[in-house]
Specification:
The chain has about 240 residues and is α+β, with helices and mostly antiparallel strands. It is built from 3 helices and 15 strands. The strands form 3 sheets. Strands 2, 3, 4, 5, 6, 7, 8, 9, 10 and 11 form a 10-stranded antiparallel beta sheet that branches. The protein has a 3-stranded antiparallel beta sheet with strand order 1-12-14, with no helix packed on it.
Length: about 240
């Protein structure tokens, strides 16, 4: 795993007194470091690329409420699934008709791995004022329980993850019909609360070459880079950059 502090210190020693941020709890240090390293390498070793506009890294902040980016409906019990994460509480995924005293299928909402400490959902049941929800989050290789209990119609339910900060990749929810007749559910929204970090996207091999130079400078030895993927900070960058 790449350490932000080590990267910042290693680069600082190479830039002849230029100011580089030290450890940054938001995780943006890596973005700054790559940007500054590219500037340094351009100065020291002119770089020739086909598309100069495609050189610079981009940063996506993953702190605060973060929407899912995909879904899994393995039970086939939902329609309009993308409406459950479109940042609009007026739209919703719709469950199939849930019979007497029965559970809906799970709807899983996914995201690339990042650090999270709580989740929230917004949902309703047609024709009733409250219902029960079963809510889980995926980390450490499996779904873990977050909350099972009552929920009010058309309102946010916010719950912490057990143990605090977790590197999550998904949440899932299902809903219970407490009535003696069938009802449908609407799943309006879901969010993860990101506590630090973000996503650094690198779309040109020149940046990747610059990262290789950084590791040579730092004495970290040979590394390999998968050029077909983006780099993610803080949790899964080890999947894209590794040390040998």
């Amino acid at each position: 795993m790449i350490k932000k502090q080590i990267i910042a210190e290693g680069l600082m020693s190479q830039l002849a007194g230029e100011v580089i941020p030290t450890y940054d709890s938001t995780g943006k240090t890596l973005y700054t470091v790559v940007t500054e390293l590219l500037a340094f390498q351009r100065h020291a070793n002119p770089i020739h690329v086909d598309d100069p506009g495609d050189i610079e890294p981009t940063w996506e902040d993953l702190s605060g409420w973060v929407s899912p980016t995909g879904f899994l409906d393995t039970g086939g019990g939902w329609t309009a699934e993308t409406s459950a994460y479109d940042d609009d509480t007026d739209t919703y995924a719709i469950s199939s008709l849930i019979g007497t005293l029965g559970w809906s299928e799970f709807l899983e909402l996914t995201h690339a791995a990042f650090v999270c400490d709580k989740v929230r959902v917004y949902a309703f049941i047609y024709g009733l004022g409250s219902f029960e929800i079963d809510l889980d989050a995926y980390y450490d290789g499996s779904y873990k329980p977050v909350y099972q209990g009552s929920m009010s119609n058309n309102s946010w339910l916010e719950k912490p993850l057990f143990g605090g900060n977790r590197t999550v990749t998904a949440l899932r929810a299902r809903f219970y019909n407490p009535d003696i007749i069938g009802h449908n559910f609407g799943f309006n929204e879901a969010d993860f609360w990101g506590v630090e970090g973000g996503k650094l996207s690198v779309t040109n091999q020149t940046i990747l070459w610059a990262l290789l130079q950084l590791y040579d400078i730092m004495g970290e030895g040979f590394i390999y880079v998968d050029n077909d993927r983006h780099l993610h900070w803080p949790s899964d960058i080890g999947d894209d950059i590794g040390q040998q």
